[in-house]
Records
---
Amino acid sequence: MEGILDSAPSGSLLPYGLGRSYGDSCLNADRELIDCRRLNRILGFDEATGMLRSESGVSFADIIDVFLPKGWFLPVTPGTQFVTVGGAIANDVHGKNHHCAGTFGAHVHQVGLHRSNDGLVVCSAEENPRLFRATIGGLGLTGVIAWADIQLRRVAGPWIDAELIPFRSLAHFLEFSRESDGRFEYTVAWLDCFAGKNPRGIFFRGNHSAETAKKFRPKRGPKLLFALPGWLLNRYSVKAFNEIYYRAHSVKRGSALVGYDSFFYPLDSIRQWNLLYGKPGFLQYQCVIPETNLDAFEELLDRIARSGMGSFLGVLKQFGSAPAAGMLSFPRPGLTLALDFAMRGEKTLQLMRSLDDVVLRSGGALYPAKDARMSAALFEASFPQWRSFVPCIDPKMSSSFWRRVTEAN
Ligand SMILES: Cc1cc2nc3c(=O)[nH]c(=O)nc-3n(C[C@H](O)[C@H](O)[C@H](O)COP(=O)(O)OP(=O)(O)OC[C@H]3O[C@@H](n4cnc5c(N)ncnc54)[C@H](O)[C@@H]3O)c2cc1C
C-alpha cells in the first residue's frame, strides 16, 4: 500500500469497496481508485467478547457466513450485505436499529489507517481520536482503512421475530415508531409515496429470535439478466405495484418468524435488481428532516405524490438520538426517507431540486452515500462542520463527490 500512496500525485486516489454507494462518493473521475476488495482476511476473533479484527475489504456477507453459525451478528447493517467493512465505516452506515444502536461506526473500536504521509496509523477514541472521528463517515478521504476492530453482537440464530402492521397516516407511523422503540431492536416502514401528505404504508418491526431448532436455508431469488424496457416503469405501473404491495401486506398483518436475509436484505435476493429501471437507470434520494418540522416532511411527500414520479421502494425510518460517531455522519434525530426515482432526465432532476428546497428550509440533510447531484450549498447546510474535517484529509485522496460539493464553497 505504501508504494501506491508514495508514488501517486496529490489528490489522485480514492479507496473503493464493493461500489454499493449509489452516487459518486465512491468514484474518482479521471483519477485512480484503489480496489480494497483484496484486503479480505479475517485477522482475529475473540470468542468470549465478540470482538472481530477484520481487513477492510471483507464483506458483511462474509462476516455473516462465518460468524452467524457461531452465534454472532453484525451490530448494525444496511439494507444490503454486499458492502465492505471499509465502505461501511467510510459512510458510517445505519440500519433498522439506529434508534437503539446508533450507526456502524459506534461499534468500531479501532482502525488501522494507511496514510500517505505517516504510514500505518492506529486510531481509536483514545489514540488519534480526531483522525478516528474523521475516518468514521470520512468518505474514504482520510486514507485507506487497512483493518478495523468491530464489536459483534450475540444472537441465538438466523431467525427474526417479525411483525408487520399497516398504517394510514404519518401520525399513525410515528405512533407505531415511538411505541416500538423500547421493545423492538429493528423498525422500518415501506411507504406508498403516491399517497401524498397522509401516507399509507407497512410498518415492519422485529427482534432476533430465540428460535434455534428450525432449519434455515438462505433465500436465493432470480437474477435479472437484462435491463427492462424503460416504458414498463411508468406512473401507472408503479402506482399499481404500490397498491398491490399495500393490499397484500395488509392481509398478512401480524407476527411471523422470518430469516435474517429476507428481513434485512430483501433486495439482495433479486440479483442485479438495478436493471429493473432500464438503461437510463435511476437516482436515489435519501434525506433526513428534523422531527420538529413535520410540516416540511408532509410537503416533501406532497411534492413527490404530485409529481407522479415516486418509486416502489420508499423507505421511512425514525432515527434515534445517538450522538454522531463520525465528524460527517449523516444520521441525526428526525425522519429519514429513501426513494428511487427512475431517471427521466431534466424532469427528474427538477423534482429532486424542488425536494432539496424543502430539505434545506427544514434544517435537514442529504446522505452522501446516496447522492449524485446535491449542490455545494445543500452539502454545506447538511454538514456545516465539513471545514473542520478538511485538515484530516490525506493529501493524496479526493473523490468526484468531494470535488463537486466543496470546490464551489
Ligand atoms: C440495496 C442497498 C441498500 C442500502 N441500504 C443502506 C442502509 O440501509 N443504510 C445505509 O447507511 N446505507 C445503505 N446503502 C448504502 C451502502 O451501505 C453504502 O454506500 C456503503 O458504504 C457501501 O459500501 P461499499 O463497500 O460498497 O463501499 P463503496 O460504495 O465502494 O465506497 C463507499 C465509500 O467508502 C470508501 N471506502 C471503501 N473502502 C474503503 C477503505 N478500505 N478505506 C477507506 N475508505 C473506503 C470509498 O472511498 C467511498 O467513499 C445501501 C446500498 C444498497 C445498494
---
Amino acid sequence: MLLELGRDVLRPVEEQRLRLGPATYRPRCENTLDVEEEAMSDTREGGCACGQVRYRLRSDPLFVHCCHCLNCQRQTGSAFVINLLIETDRVELLAGDPAPVAVARSGGKKQKIWRCPTCQVAVYSQYTSARLRFVRGGTLDDPASVAPDVHIFTRSKLPWVEIPESVPAFNVYYDTKKLWPAASLERLTALTTR
Ligand SMILES: [Zn+2]
Ligand SMILES: [Zn+2]
C-alpha cells in the first residue's frame, strides 16, 4: 500500500522525464553562440518530487560543479552534489514558491537552500551573491543533459568515486579565470558590474 502511494506521488515527475526524450549535449568549450541564441537553444526544465515547484533555465549554466565537500555530502545525504551555476534571473520559476532555509555549514557559515514547501526537495541554493544560483543538477527533468565541468573538494571525495581523467579536479577549489570559458567569464563580469 505504501509502495503504491509512493509510485503515485512520483508518477507526474517520472512521466515528465519520459516525455522529454534524449538530451542534446553540446560540449561547452565549442559554444561560441551569443547569449540570445544560447538562451533560445538550450533551455532546461526541472522541479521537485511532488511537482509543485517547476523551473526553467533560460540558458546554459555558466559552469557545472561536482562538489565532494563534507557539507554537500551531508546536505544531500549522498557522495556529492551537482551544481549548475547560473545567473539568478535566468532561473525562471514556472510554478510553486520554493522557500529559503538557512543551513549551517562548517566554519560557522550558513547557506540558503531553496526547498519545495510541500515535499521539501532542494532545488537550488545560494552561497555568497544573491545574483548567482546553484541549481541542483539532480532536479533537472533530464539530469544527463549536463556533466560536471570541474570536480572540487576531492580531498573528501569518497574513495569509490572515480573521476574521468578528462575533467579537471581539485583538492579544494580552482581559479575561475583559468577554467571558465570566455563567454561565462563575460557573463560573470556582467553580473558583478550590474
Ligand atoms: Zn515538491
Ligand atoms: Zn560542496
